[in-house]
Amino acid sequence: MPSETMASPEVKVSITASHDGGNIEVISKSEPVVSGRTAKVTVTVHIKPDVYTEFESRAHSQYFSFRSFVSGLHSSNSGGEGDDGIKLITVQYVVANARSVSFPEAWPGYTVCYTSGSLEPCDDDSWRRNLATRYVDGKLIWEHVHAANGSTFFSYSPPYTYGRHLKLIADCSARISARGGSLERYDPVVESLGQTLEGREIECISIGNGKLAAWIQHRQHPGETMAEFFAEGFLHRLFGVGKDGELDETTKKVLDQYRLHVIPNMCPDGSVLGHLRTNSVGANLNREWATVPGHEDYEAPTLRRSPEVHAVLSKMDEIGCDFFLDVHGDEDIPYVFFSGAEKTPAWGDRLEHLHGYFISCYQRANSDVQKEIGYPPPDSADDALKYMNVATNQISTRFNCLGLTLEMPYKDCETNPDPANGFSLERTKKLGANLMDALVDVHPYLRAEGQFWRAFSKEDGYVIPTDNYKEQGFVMLKKRFYSDVRPHDA
Ligand SMILES: [Zn+2]
User: What region holds the Peptidase M14 domain (predicted)?
Assistant: First the structure.
């Protein structure tokens, strides 16, 4: 490489998405416009689509993550007398194909995440939001002033890397094998339920002495990285990670009530590939839990297309399921919310009351939770049958159990607004840790007989969620159901 570090080195902005979970394609970079000791550059990028999804006849996209590396800046005290090098550079980043993503209606109100730290766990708190992010003429645009040489990550949501995933598994394993540890009596096991098509393990962590089986799975949609931060919050509390294995009283209760089965990442291949919604061959895992009417020729799950779902469902059939939670993120709605198995064959008084009660318990533990806003339920039982390939519907019906999908925002969480940080990693992990409190409270009723809900107060009731959450000027979303993707003008 020719040296460019002569008296006045050229300022360079270099873009890469080579980290795991990276996704970007550079389209163009303008020549720097220099004014005094500052410069301006425009970098135009495209989000790369996932592998084509046969079931939905489209290639999904929305998630992106890249590293911008700046070199050649002269900090104010580096050059000394007579230094006229560039001190800072303003880069305008333009995502030129933002209009063609899976949920373009979700861009307004979104702010890009960035950090000049690393992707290591200790740097979680360094992520911030660029409040000047805007969606204009089908493009997502923001400016960033780089005042120092080095790297800045920009990401749709902070990546949860495969390295971090392995560390999470190792941390749980280390607690299990710790000498004199208090966990032994809860029979903890870390196992692989099978391998993905690219050969990654589908890890499941099981622990607890209780009679009821609770399954909690995360990140079926790999670009919903918050789901694995949630898993980390829950697992750290469950195993006393960072607390010398010390378990709090609520956690001990949960371990006496349940046997928990936790899958921190359902789609590790898609996660590493920087996909939004699919594994390495384009399967949207949350449409792979059954063959559904109208798609009889699309058999699901299969080992060739969706071994992740095949493995987990087989294990569930073997063990049973009394509580199911599927953890996701939603591109559009700036709230934490749940959707259930409304109008599926299992739905009735019992599940409706359990659903309402569980959310109330969760809300009492964490004020980011609410029950009024969310996806409207399907119109009819027939409509619901079309979605029996969605995990929550399939599992609730298959095991006649409470099953819910938890959605967290990519934006801010407007129950407790915090624009500069959005729904931060700290809040995400805390929400995960608080699942423990809701599990304890709902336990007595999960398999109760009779009209147990007569004991519930009115505020614990089921509320039909709406996505019409802005009174003034709100454009009603094209009705979506379970993050379903419809043609934009259908
Ligand atoms: Zn999802």
Answer: 158-443
Domains and CATH numbers, the chain: 12-155 (2.60.40.3120), 162-460 (3.40.630.10)
| Dihedral of alpha carbons 228, 194, 484, 393, sign | negative
**Taking residues 98-113, what's their average pLDDT?**
96
Q: What is the CA radius of gyration of the chain?
A: 24
What are the CA-CA distances from residue 482 to residues 90, 296, 404 (Å)? Answer: 40, 21, 11
Predicted confidence band of residue 480 (pLDDT cuts 50, 70, 90): very low
What's the gap in Å between 329 CA and the centre of ligand 1?
5
> How many angstroms does the Cα of residue 128 sit away from the middle of ligand 1?
23
In this prediction the pTM is: 0.94
Strand order in the sheet with 128-130: 12-16, 65-71, 150-155, 112-115, 128-130
Q: How far is the CA of 328 from the centre of ligand 1 (A)?
A: 4
Catalytic residues: 407
Neighbours of ion ligand 1 (CB under 5 A): 221, 224, 328
Query: Cα(39) to centroid of ligand 1, in Å?
Result: 40
